[in-house]
Amino acid sequence: MSLTIQVRQTTVVTLAGRLDTSSSPRAEQALALVLAAAPKHVVFDLAGLEFISSAGLRVLLGARKTLSDAGSECVLVNMQPQIERVLEVIRSLPGMKIFTSAREADEYLASIQERVLEGE
Amino acid sequence: LDTPLPPPASRDEVGRLTASFVEMQTALYQYIETVKQSTAAEERLESELRVARQIQMSLLPRHADLAPERLGCEVFGLLEPARAVGGDLFDVLLRRPGELAFVIGDVSGKGIPAALFMAVTDIHFEAAARELRDPEAVLARINDALVAENNANMFVTLICGVLDTASGRLALASGGHTRPVLVPASGAPAFVEGDIGTVVGVVPGLSFQRHDLRLKPGDALVLYTDGVTEAHDPDSRLFGEERLLEQLRSRPGDEPSALAEGVRDAVRAFAGSAPQFDDIAMLIVRRAPAAAGAAVSAQTHLDLDGRTDELSRARAWLEDWCASQGIDAEVVHDLDLALDEVVANVVHHGYGSSEGGRIGLHLGLAGDVVRFEVRDRAAAFNPLEAEAPGPMSAHGGGGLGVHLVRRLMDRVEYTRENGENRLVLERSRSRCR
């Protein structure tokens, strides 16, 4: 039974389309609703995300800060190559390690699963 | 003053004049408002000078007028009066496609009298250069016109040139002006030979000598006023011709804007704490370097209102053009990103809350390189100097976008010219990561 309860604590946010100057304010509002529920783990599924600019990155960075301040974690998964390329540029900046690579994300998810399976 | 002016429909003289008048109208409105409120004479003088400066600057060619794709060669002008207004001038006129007339000049004296004389000279140049083919004839016409109405014993030194941009044939005539420098695409810069001639506006019926030369692709002609060579340091030593040559020698292959600004910066550094004594003007005309010049194969332009909701229109324009040029998806993505970042920057930091700002976008292909240019008339703002992004700027700050643009483009350059911010971004179309 613990399995069911724990899995529900992982909130999956699917972002599809473009996260840019025009759409970021809307994304920020929508995310505020998610964050208000103080989720423990948030997975951003970016499979459908085609474009991200710094305005979009700031939304994700903001969400991540809110979560980490509350002791929660988030991870980005399923990035398309162009999104990965933009994040690669950002990762080289000091203090911007937050966007883990796909491999790290897999490991992270696996570790959650394990904890879950162990009935954490 | 309340009469609405027609929108400047063309880039010709009337268009420029209309644009100038629109600026004057705006400036005068502001001026009147200022005067209503201020009683102190000093304040009034200051605001008069400010208006005079705006009017003077509006006489100069607009940046859009100097676009290389319009002129068929690269032109950059720089004007820095020692006081609020000055007597130096430069002007450029595209007489017909492929034929460029230009002038640089230095009126005797400084300040308001010199500025008025400069304005009159410029008007005579425009009229004469439209009508007369040869630069020596243009100078003779200006001379006679100025002599006829000159009661103030002022004069002006001028160089007038006519360039055939296709062949590089260049004719020059000098009326007592400092010798220009030819900066060849390869080889050492040298002063242009020929008769320096007599100053303009004093002796009636003067004739001027013509000097013919040819600009090879990449060759640049550097014209300047003696505010450059006669700038002095705190010990009263002159900057001099040798230092000018040295500066130009140290910048092989630089674009005209970089050449001019390099010299200007060197003059400033040399002068140090000594106050700027004379007006400084420079005009650089460069024949396009062979490779890039031959290959500017496709270009497109779009004007936006300075609002972020214009971005979708801009993106459609950019993507259409890229598709027509067969540009790879990865490069299109990077240009898309640059568009989003740069326009957002201009809207948020440049125009701020003020309405009505325009943003000019230009895309061109030069050989392998996509060149993306963004121009706006907001207050001077160099986005490339934005604070470096880091953990301290909570969400990455404004510098995040600039960092992305810098990394995804191959070259970024900011210049401020004639009241315009200009950001040039270049991205190789074949480079993929």
Structural features, described:
The complex is a heterodimer of chains A (120) and B (433). Chain A is built from five helices and five strands; from the N terminus they run αββαββαβαα. The longest helix of chain A has 16 residues. Chain A is 52% helix and 18% strand. In chain A, the strands form two sheets. Chain A has a three-stranded parallel beta sheet, sandwiched between helices. Chain A has 120 residues and is α/β, with parallel strands linked by helices. Chain A is globular, with a radius of gyration of 14 Å. Chain B is an alpha+beta fold and 433 residues long. In chain B, 39% of the residues lie in helices and 24% in strands. In chain B, strands 1-10-9-6-7 form a five-stranded antiparallel beta sheet. In chain B, helix 4 crosses helix 5 and helix 11 runs antiparallel to helix 12. The termini of chain B are far apart. About 2% of the residues of chain B have low confidence. Chains A and B meet through helix 3 and helix 4 of A and helix 11 and helix 12 of B.
Salient structural properties:
heterodimer, A: 120 residues, 3-stranded parallel sheet, two-stranded parallel sheet, globular, B: 433 residues, alpha+beta, 5-stranded antiparallel sheet, 12 helices
